[in-house]
Each structure stands twice: as C-alpha cells, then as structure tokens.
C-alpha cells in the first residue's frame, strides 16, 4: 500500500532517438512532487516549476525504425532536491533533453560532442533507486506511399463489392449464398 504522503518522479524517454547516425536517449518529460495514491497518478499543474515540461514526440522520421517511448516512475526521496547542475539555467531545455547538466557529461564515443540523456547518471546524481513502475509505447511513421497504396486497394475492394451487388439479384441468390460468393471471390476461387 502506498502512503498518500509519498511523492513520485516521472520521466518519459525516447530510448532510441537518432542523432548523427547514433541511437541515444532523449528526455521528453521530467516531473516531480507527484502525489501517489493507490489508484492513479494525479500529476499537478505546477505552473513552471516542472524541471522539464512535457514535449510531445512529434518528430518521427519517415522510414525510420519504430521509436520506443518509455515512462518511468520513481519514489521521490523525502528530502529530495534535483542535482543542481541539472537544474542550472546555463543549459537550454533542448540541451537538457539530450543530457547537458547531468553531473560530468561525457561525449558519446565517436569523437564529437554529441551527448545522449543518460538515465543511469541521472538516477545516481539524484539518488533514485530503481523505478517502481514503467510503461512504454512504440511509434512508427508509415510512409505516405504505403498509406496511399493501402487506400487504393480498399477503394478497389469497395468498387468490386458495388459491382457484384449490382450484378446479383435477390431472386437469384439468398443472403447466405451471396456471403459465400463474396468469400470465394475474396479467396480467388
């Protein structure tokens, strides 16, 4: 049972965000002081005090692999305060989303200064334990060409159904025979 006085921290990450040919973690949302109840999360409107406000994942690259978005919920320690380097205003919101301000950031292997949000570093810097709950969803952008082909096939099916219904008479076939005729036609028999 969860105590109503307990608080939680919520993170939302894209765990395979493409940056310069690499897959990195990108932070989309970071909220804290969320009151816990036994039935649901009540995420308060904190009027600008959220460390990193929600950023809707809209940039999905056409033809790219599916992107995995993960929600992680942590118990918030009683005397919790975010690591000051992460809350430092020296970094922009977009820089924080990819890891700037997390302890002593290290460039991703490859010789440039590309950083990824590092969940393990964030957990250690803020003395968080393991997540107490998690969920995820996967998002994939279908290419417009694939969608157009699917729509064209569906339209052709509807046209064929109308033609078939126009050519068949109710006197000639009963309802069950018409259904079987459609099944046979659909299977190419």
In short, what is this structure?
This is Phosphatidylethanolamine-binding pebp. The protein is of the alpha+beta class.
Overview of the molecule:
This protein has helices spanning 84-87, 93-97, 119-125, 144-167, 175-187; strands at residues 7-19, 22-35, 67-76, 133-139. With 189 residues, it is of the alpha+beta class. The protein has a 4-stranded antiparallel beta sheet with strand order 2-1-3-4, with no helix packed on it. InterPro entries: PEBP-like_sf. This is Phosphatidylethanolamine-binding pebp.
Approximately what portion of the residues adopt beta-strand conformation? 15-25%
CATH superfamily caption of the largest domain: PEBP-like
How many DSSP helices?
5
Which geometry do the CA atoms define? Answer: elongated
Low-confidence stretches: 104-114
Residue-averaged pLDDT: 70
- Overall number of structural domains: 2
CATH T-level topology of the largest domain? Phosphatidylethanolamine-binding Protein
Radius of gyration: 26 Å
How do the SSEs run, as a string of H and E? Answer: EEEHHHEHH
CATH class of the largest domain equals Alpha Beta
* Class from secondary-structure proportions: alpha+beta
Main sheet properties: 4 strands, antiparallel
Question: What brief labels describe this structure?
Answer:
189 residues; alpha+beta; Phosphatidylethanolamine-binding Protein; 2 domains; four-stranded antiparallel β-sheet; 5 helices; 23% strand
SSE map:
Blueprint: E1 7-19, E2 22-35, E3 67-76, H1 84-87, H2 93-97, H3 119-125, E4 133-139, H4 144-167, H5 175-187
Antiparallel strand pairs: 1-2, 1-3, 3-4
């Amino acid at each position: 049972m969860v105590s109503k006085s307990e608080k939680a921290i919520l993170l939302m990450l894209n765990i395979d965000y493409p940056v310069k040919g690499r897959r990195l973690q990108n932070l989309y949302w970071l909220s804290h002081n969320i009151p816990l109840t036994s039935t649901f999360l009540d995420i308060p409107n904190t009027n600008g005090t959220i460390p990193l406000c929600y950023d809707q994942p809209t940039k999905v690259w056409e033809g790219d692999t599916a992107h995995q978005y993960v929600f992680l919920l942590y118990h918030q320690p009683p005397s919790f305060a975010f690591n000051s380097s992460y809350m430092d205003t020296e970094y922009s919101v977009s820089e924080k989303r990819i890891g700037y301000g997390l302890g002593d950031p290290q460039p991703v292997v490859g010789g440039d200064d590309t950083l990824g949000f590092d969940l393990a570093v964030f957990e250690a810097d803020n003395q968080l334990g393991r997540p107490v709950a998690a969920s995820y969803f996967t998002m994939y952008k279908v290419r417009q060409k694939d969608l157009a082909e699917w729509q064209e096939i569906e339209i052709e099916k509807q046209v064929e159904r109308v033609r078939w219904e126009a050519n068949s008479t109710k006197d000639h076939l009963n309802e069950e025979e018409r259904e079987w005729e459609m099944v046979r036609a659909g299977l190419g028999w």
